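User: Hey, quick favor. My workstation is busy. Could you predict this chain's structure for me?
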Amino acid sequence: MDQALQAGTLATLKTVSTSTLTTLLFKRGFRNVFIQGARPLKPGQRIAGPAFTLRYIPSREDLDGVDAFLDPRHPQRVAVEEIPAGAVLVMDCRGDVSVASAGSILATRMQVRGVAGIVTDGGLRDAAGIAALDMPAWCSGPSAPTNLLRHHALDINAPIGCGGVPVYPGDIMVGDGDGVVCIPRHLADDVARDAVEMERFEDFVLDEVRRGATIIGLYPPTAPDTRLRYEAWLARRAAE
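Assistant: No problem, here it is.
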């Protein structure tokens, strides 16, 4: 069973940057957490939700003709109908952007069902239509050809590799303008808590740098008075 998250963890993660999260995960020994190639379809997108996965292997001519979608058990279609509300569909396309991994009809169906978003290391077709939805999406680029030309949908909600990152069902996917980070689920609560303090301190650092301060001794805070200045900055903000 997936470990239950603390109340507010997803809401918090949706407000912090992927750069902050990659640093916090690096401090915990995790180096490979940023989905390579996945970029937002439109500016301002944010996402935080548990992964629901779909794995594609290379297609084979006798299995992946245009009639493959006539099968009501086709894994791509099943995934669209079974992904829970609030989850993120994460697709392993082996980094192949030559064809689409989904299109606007499937994306619209998922939005209607309350799905939080799409993350794929492959392409998306009807990209403008998906970008117009309220549901955010990250992909390696627009691609018009149908997935059947290169992909055979296989495993649903099993461990996958997306953009070179291991993604296990239930891991927490967080996306922003830079891309998408995969947080191992058991770390999500602690990372969310630490991210708030890290971004608060970095706001202080930016204020200091804008005033002309050197970053030496400030970032990281090795100078004896940095923490004192930070506490004073916090007190001033609290009084405002």
